[in-house]
């Protein structure tokens, strides 16, 4: 017996993984894709194919959109607001927080129960123990869709502000890319001495594993804004250390472009008399006036 009917709008790698997982866990799935040929493997596996989005939405209890971008969401869904009215729309398309809020406002205007989502996983992880999906928006939409969403991975509801899932997603991805950027800088430096990136990867993994717990202590200082006198490394100390890292990179013929922005912020703190503060007070310079 089917647990319910869910429409999956968009069959890229992620949409396909979601459709497959929902089928495996007992849901009736209706799939739609702009390129109709992509529906064929899903039909063979037991899904129903819809020729149009309107048809896909009409025959489902919950619609899950996994499209290219924010523009694609509105281009494809605005023509079918009548069919979506009164239904739950879960948007798993990657968008910015304000784009998510704009889509939530559009949905509310048309009587659509809207939930925004962010996928902290690659397609191969969907349904596995490491898969995490973040959700925010209409609380009732989350309650209705939760049983199905939990088949995709751990589900975390962030709150009624539709932009919160995207905000957390973007923040975590920012941290990830900055970390990977550090690895690339290290690998580039070590490669000048003939050290393969595979060895540097092992060294970086061990080193970051040892120092990563420090972020919890940093968080306490940030939340209290208790920067001066420095409970940890001061701006002046860290500024000198960053200057050495930049010089070392350049001595090896490696660009320091990934390091220079941090040094620039530290220089500004010193120039404005805040050299004795903790270096993590750099966070206060990251807020720009809107």
Describe the protein in words.
This protein is 49% helix and 13% strand. By secondary structure, the chain is an alpha/beta fold. It has two domains: 5-167, 3-Layer(aba) Sandwich (Rossmann fold); 213-285, N-(1-d-carboxylethyl)-l-norvaline Dehydrogenase, domain 2 (Orthogonal Bundle). It has an eight-stranded mixed sheet with strand order 3-2-1-4-5-6-7-8, with helices on both faces. Helix 8 (164-191) crosses helix 9 (197-211) and helix 11 (235-251) runs antiparallel to helix 12. It starts with a strand and ends in a 19-residue tail after the last helix.
Please write out the topology.
Elements: E1 5-9, H1 13-24, E2 28-32, H2 40-44, E3 48-49, H3 53-58, E4 62-65, H4 70-77, H5 81-84, E5 88-91, H6 97-109, E6 113-120, E7 132-137, H7 139-149, E8 154-157, H8 164-191, H9 197-211, H10 214-224, H11 235-251, H12 260-271
């Amino acid at each position: 017996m089917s647990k319910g009917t869910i429409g999956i709008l968009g069959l890229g790698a992620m949409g396909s993984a979601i459709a497959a997982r929902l089928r495996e866990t007992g849901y009736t799935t209706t799939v739609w894709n702009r390129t109709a040929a992509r529906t064929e493997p899903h039909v063979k596996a037991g899904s129903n194919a819809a020729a149009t989005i309107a048809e896909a939405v009409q025959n489902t209890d919950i619609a899950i959109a996994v499209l290219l971008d924010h523009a694609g969401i509105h281009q494809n869904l605005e023509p079918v607001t009548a069919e979506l009215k009164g239904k739950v729309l879960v948007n798993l398309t990657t968008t910015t927080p304000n784009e998510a809020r704009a889509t939530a406002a559009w949905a509310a205007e048309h009587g659509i129960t809207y939930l925004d989502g962010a996928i902290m996983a690659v397609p191969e992880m969907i349904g596995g123990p490491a898969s995490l999906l973040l959700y925010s928006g209409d609380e009732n939409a989350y309650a209705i869709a939760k049983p199905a969403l939990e088949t995709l991975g751990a589900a975390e509801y962030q709150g009624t502000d539709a932009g919160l899932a995207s905000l957390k997603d973007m923040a975590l991805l920012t941290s990830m890319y900055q970390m990977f950027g550090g690895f690339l800088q290290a690998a580039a430096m070590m490669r000048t001495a003939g050290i393969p990136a595979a060895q540097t990867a092992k060294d970086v993994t061990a080193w970051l594993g040892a120092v990563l717990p420090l972020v919890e202590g940093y968080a306490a200082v940030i939340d209290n804004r208790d920067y001066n006198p420095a409970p940890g490394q001061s701006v002046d100390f860290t500024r000198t250390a960053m200057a050495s890292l930049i010089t070392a990179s350049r001595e090896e013929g490696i660009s320091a472009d990934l390091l220079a922005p941090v040094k620039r912020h530290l220089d500004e703190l010193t120039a404005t008399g805040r050299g004795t503060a903790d270096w993590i007070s750099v966070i206060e310079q990251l807020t720009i006036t809107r």
